């Protein structure tokens, strides 16, 4: 027997004389989720179906409606049964314009990995039943964003796990008021924004009723800029709300004028084009260069997308340099990257290095080793051997050098991996900051899923100030840099770390050591990750390969302790190793390697940084149950 409680089912009918209403019916259940508005079915999701936007049907569904017409303007699904999928809720909920009508419901299961922070977020949004939802329980909730919850109904059945059952369906019916069209400033005059905000959601205060963001962002000059003629190229697909955040992060900072930005869009997406027209940003759409349907015998979609993305980068760079004939370089961003407030100032201060030092081939805004607990020094720059994407500057000269052999076809691999091969890198390096200057919002990209996001991307914060003075930029030139590294390594403030503890032991490294710690670990050649993988995974650093080093030297902080990890005997600095010193063990088997993959998912919780976590509350996932039966 199933015991259940119906916690709340409110109905609000009537209201103002002559006011217009919307009749809302929602069914949330094991196999079917239906939403009907004024007798028209707008969603019929069944378990196992693929929705129009490519998402799968199972999990927590969200519809948002135009508050004046009742038209559906956004549909999202979050499979919060899956680990870390709740991370995607945060940017979406915070991007819905106040005044919209939002409908939430569950299909099949949504609670298994619904973390406490995500439940709190939903409850704060008005979905109160989310805070008590259990496994295979159902809910339906209709609310006005930033206003009242019109109804929140749930069937809460505590026995579904022990009895291996599903809670009874929730069937919800309410009549809710629609707002008067005059209640929104952008509805009154027939401006460009009216069409956009009536049709689409996910732009927050851009579509605010009372005080929509001005369309012309105040232009702030970048003092004594040397990158005036260097454009920012944004590579985009069909993620307009993310693209909006990315563009806005540029427009709101010194130097970020619309005419500086060029967006290339792969495909024809009306919402993206309308957005760019509204923001007065120049763009070019490319027809997808490769057609999947002609490659039916290709089993690996990843290989296909790698080729398509590579081609897009090539064509986009070519276009950017053609449209800006005087630009010596281009700054690249992707639509799911948000620039820090000093992003342009960062490139302005470092551009001279790329122009003057032939041993460099990029300046990048991203530190692969820059997690919350491993990077604090906002003024510090480093040189690394691996090409780093995620917000970077490439010169015309180097593009011309690699343009002819750029990977364009299926099977030729990812452009970024390709740029890293010896032939292209030609022993050149990139300059990166210790604290990244971009924030990676995308939970899912071509290669990125939830656990990967939580382990390696979401925990990288950026700087928050517009004016950060970078230290000793001239010391990043090759000869100077080498000199400073030797000075650092041979200074008396160096302590060689000598412990037999495993790097995963919580006492392995002190968090507040005043001297610089040098760790030696085994590394036979540049691509040998057997020693690095364990050290990095245990300390919460990128461990999947040996990116981010300079001649075998990895520099990072562990909280307040400065660490220099030297790959022995590969590194040029191996000569410093005392004859007898403990080195962490190497990963010998694939089983050990797989164990590391499960470990890194826990890293965000193993390396807490209370003061910085405040800025990313959604990161703190507290649930993780590997697998479960659903149907
Ligand atoms: C949702 O997540 C669960 C757990 O990872 C997975 O088994 C299931 O296939 C996912 N469902 C969809 C529709 O993606
Ligand atoms: C795709 O998979 C089928 C069956 O597994 C195999 O016969 C075929 O060779 C594969 N095609 C390619 C291009 O790998
Ligand atoms: C831009 O770079 C130039 C040259 O390095 C420097 O003089 C100027 O102060 C920089 N401005 C900002 C805001 O970074
Ligand atoms: C790091 O240093 C700061 C400033 O001295 C201090 O407030 C903080 O507690 C230290 N953190 C750790 C983990 O020791
Ligand atoms: C870390 O060291 C700094 C400077 O020595 C000191 O001020 C601070 O209190 C220490 N913090 C902790 C948590 O030990
Ligand atoms: C490191 O520790 C080991 C054992 O604890 C000891 O034998 C060795 O001499 C130490 N090495 C150095 C350089 O202190």
From TrEMBL:
Source species:
Hyalella azteca (Amphipod)
Matching SUPFAM superfamilies? Nucleotide-diphospho-sugar transferases
Q: Name the predominant localization.
A: Golgi
User: Which pathway is this protein assigned to?
Assistant: Protein modification; protein glycosylation
One example of the protein's molecular function in GO is: beta-1,3-galactosyl-O-glycosyl-glycoprotein beta-1,3-N-acetylglucosaminyltransferase activity
Extent of the signal sequence: 1-18
Entry protein name = Alpha-1,3-mannosyl-glycoprotein 2-beta-N-acetylglucosaminyltransferase
What job does the chain carry out? Answer: Initiates complex N-linked carbohydrate formation. Essential for the conversion of high-mannose to hybrid and complex N-glycans.
Q: Which reaction does it catalyse?
A: N(4)-(alpha-D-Man-(1->3)-[alpha-D-Man-(1->3)-[alpha-D-Man-(1->6)]-alpha-D-Man-(1->6)]-beta-D-Man-(1->4)-beta-D-GlcNAc-(1->4)-beta-D-GlcNAc)-L-asparaginyl-[protein] (N-glucan mannose isomer 5A1,2) + UDP-N-acetyl-alpha-D-glucosamine = N(4)-{beta-D-GlcNAc-(1->2)-alpha-D-Man-(1->3)-[alpha-D-Man-(1->3)-[alpha-D-Man-(1->6)]-alpha-D-Man-(1->6)]-beta-D-Man-(1->4)-beta-D-GlcNAc-(1->4)-beta-D-GlcNAc}-L-asparaginyl-[protein] + UDP + H(+)
Q: Which cofactor does it need?
A: Mn(2+)
One GO term of the biological process aspect: protein O-linked glycosylation via N-acetyl-galactosamine
Q: Which family does it belong to?
A: Belongs to the glycosyltransferase 13 family.
Q: What is its EC number?
A: 2.4.1.101
Q: Which gene encodes it?
A: LOC108681448
Keywords (alphabetical) are:
Glycosyltransferase, Golgi apparatus, Manganese, Membrane, Metal-binding, Signal, Signal-anchor, Transferase, Transmembrane, Transmembrane helix
Q: Where in the cell is it found?
A: Golgi apparatus membrane
């Amino acid at each position: 027997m199933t015991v259940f409680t119906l916690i709340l089912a409110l109905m609000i009918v009537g209201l103002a004389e002559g006011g217009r209403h919307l009749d809302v019916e929602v069914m949330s259940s094991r196999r079917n989720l239906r939403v009907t508005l004024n007798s028209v079915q707008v969603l019929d999701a069944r378990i196992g179906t693929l929705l129009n936007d490519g998402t799968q049907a199972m999990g927590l569904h969200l519809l948002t409606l135009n508050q004046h017409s009742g038209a559906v303007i956004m549909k999202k699904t979050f499979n919060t049964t899956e680990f870390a999928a709740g991370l995607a809720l945060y940017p979406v909920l915070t991007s819905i314009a106040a005044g919209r009508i939002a409908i939430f419901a569950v299909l099949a299961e949504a609670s298994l990995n619904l973390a406490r922070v995500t439940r709190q977020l939903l409850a704060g949004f008005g979905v109160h039943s989310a805070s008590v939802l259990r496994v295979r329980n159902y809910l339906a909730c209709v609310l006005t964003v930033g206003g009242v919850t019109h109804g929140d109904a749930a069937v809460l059945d505590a026995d579904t796990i022990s009895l291996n059952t599903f809670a009874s369906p929730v069937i919800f019916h309410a009549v809710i008021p629609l707002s008067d069209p005059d209640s929104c400033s952008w509805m009154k005059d027939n401006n460009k924004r009216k069409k956009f905000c009536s049709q689409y959601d996910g732009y927050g205060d851009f579509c605010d009723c009372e005080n929509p963001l001005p369309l012309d962002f105040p232009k702030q000059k970048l003092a004594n800029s040397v990158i005036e003629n260097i454009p920012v190229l944004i590579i985009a697909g069909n993620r307009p709300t993310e693209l909006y955040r990315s563009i806005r992060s540029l427009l709101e900072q010194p130097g970020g004028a619309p005419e500086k930005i060029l967006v290339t869009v792969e495909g024809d997406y009306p919402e993206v084009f309308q957005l760019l027209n509204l923001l007065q940003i120049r763009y070019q759409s490319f027809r997808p260069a490769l057609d999947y349907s002609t490659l039916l015998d290709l089993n690996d979609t990843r290989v296909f997308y790698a080729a398509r993305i590579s081609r897009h980068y090539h064509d986009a760079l070519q276009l950017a340099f053609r449209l800006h004939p005087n630009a010596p370089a281009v700054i690249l961003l992707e639509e799911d990257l948000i620039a820090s407030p000093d992003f342009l100032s960062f490139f302005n201060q470092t551009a001279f290095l790329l122009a003057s030092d032939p041993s460099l081939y990029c300046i990048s805004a991203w530190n692969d080793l820059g997690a919350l607990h491993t990077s604090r020094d906002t003024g510090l720059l480093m040189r690394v051997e691996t090409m780093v994407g995620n917000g970077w500057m490439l010169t015309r000269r180097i593009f011309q050098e690699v343009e002819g052999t750029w990977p364009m076809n299926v099977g030729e691999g990812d452009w970024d991996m390709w740029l890293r091969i010896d032939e292209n890198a030609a022993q050149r390096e990139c300059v990166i900051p210790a604290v990244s200057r971009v924030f990676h919002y995308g939970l899912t990209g071509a290669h990125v899923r939830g656990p990967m996001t939580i382990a390696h991307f979401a925990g990288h914060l950026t700087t928050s100030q517009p004016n950060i003075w970078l230290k000793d930029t001239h010391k990043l030139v090759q000869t100077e840099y080498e000199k400073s590294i030797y000075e650092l390594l041979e200074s008396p403030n160096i302590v060689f770390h000598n412990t037999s503890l495993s790097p995963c032991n919580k006492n392995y490294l002190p968090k507040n050591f005043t001297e610089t710690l040098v760790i030696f670990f085994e590394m036979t050649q540049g691509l040998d990750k057997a020693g690095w993988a364990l050290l990095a995974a245990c300390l919460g650093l990128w461990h999947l390969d040996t990116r981010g080093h300079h001649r075998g030297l990895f520099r990072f902080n562990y909280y307040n302790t400065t660490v220099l990890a030297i790959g022995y005997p590969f590194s040029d600095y191996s000569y410093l190793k005392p004859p007898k010193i403990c080195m962490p063990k190497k990963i010998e088997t694939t089983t050990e390697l797989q164990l590391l993959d499960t470990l890194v998912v826990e890293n965000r919780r193993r390396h807490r940084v209370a003061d910085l976590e405040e800025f990313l509350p959604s990161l703190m996932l507290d649930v993780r149950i590997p697998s479960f039966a659903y149907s």
